[in-house]
Amino acid sequence: MLDRLTSMKIFIKVVELGSFAAASQHLNLSPQMVAKHIEALEHHLGARLLHRTTRRQSLTETGRLYCEQCRLVLQAAERADTLAANTLGTPRGTLSVSVPVTFGRTVFLSFIHSFQKRYPEIQVHLSLTDQLVHPTMDGHEAVIRIGELETDLTVVSRPLTAYRRVICAAQTYLEKHGFPGQPEDLMRHECLVYENSGGPVTTWHFSQGSVTRPVTVSGRIISNDSSVLHSAALAGDGILLGYEQALLTDIKSKRLVRLMPRWTVPDRPMHLLYNAGPVMTPKLRVFVTELQEAFQP
User: Fold this and answer.
1) How high does pLDDT run on average in the chain?
2) Cα–Cα nearest to 240, from 189, 181, 176
3) What is this structure's pTM?
4) Could you give the C-alpha distances from 171 to 157, 158, 247, 251, in angstroms and in order?
């Protein structure tokens, strides 16, 4: 007999991803096993949960109602596991964390490597995204955010090391186009533009002492993936404004040249967000403690 909670989890994943094939790939199960779990639920209920086509599945009305209840059942099961874990007091289980892409690919990976050595019974489910993510509402237990926070947040926030950015370019680009000496010079250069959910970020801010200058930049390469812009900078395609930690190795090896050293780009605040209660799990507690120690502001 198939475990019904497992079948519910698989059913929800099929609904979220839209097909048996996508769910089977995500869950590392065969499509036949995914179908068997759905059929077991339908047999138990005596009702069809999904309209099936060759390419995609859609919910029946019964399926829609049942899916909502499955989510509640699984959340209750997770809370029961949480209470049991707190009783045992040993940090263990899966910890879901959302982290900005560039930060997640660089220094945060080193932190996770050390963290899991100390807590081998914690499995970290890491989601990398630059989209606005809310703890608990988006299914994550901890979220790292870059930028100013909303004033009406109902979760706990803890400051982390500021997100420091630098401006740089490859020597090949500079030999061809020259060195910008002042922020305004960037308006005559090819800049590599990052795009977030609000669109291309074409205003770069610089400061020198008490003087702050916003500069409108432009370029032929615009991307929402910072690694693409990093590669474009290395190829000599333009001037990059990026996360210092991600660029440090290339700057030290002189593959990229740091520009306008007398001008700085204002740091962006970075915070850890999480929901602390009513019960804070041991796995979340140690994660919060370790992260704050590793990235003290």
Assistant:
1) 89
2) 189
3) 0.66
4) 41, 39, 15, 11
**Confidence band, pLDDT 50/70/90 cuts, at residue 41:** confident
Cα–Cα distance for residue pair 118/115, rounded to 1 Å:
5
User: What are 158's two structure tokens?
Assistant: 């803890």
Average pLDDT over residues 218-230: 94
Per-residue pLDDT, averaged over 177-203, amounts to: 93
Instruction: Specify whether 151 is located in the same domain as 218.
Output: no
- Which of residues 44, 71, 86 is at a domain's end? 86
Q: Which two tokens stand for residue 207?
A: 């400061």
Question: Which residues make Cβ contacts (< 8 Å) with residue 64, sequence separation at least 6?
Answer: none
Identify the domain boundary among 60, 86, 112.
86
Is the predicted pLDDT of residue 174 greater than 70, yes or no? yes
d(CA 8, CA 38) in angstroms, rounded, equals 8
Instruction: Please choose, from the candidates 11, 101, 127, the residue with its C-alpha nearest in 3D space to the C-alpha of residue 60.
Output: 11
Residue carrying the six token digits 């680009």: 173
Q: In angstroms, rounded to a whole number, what is the distance separating the alpha carbons of residues 98 and 139?
A: 10
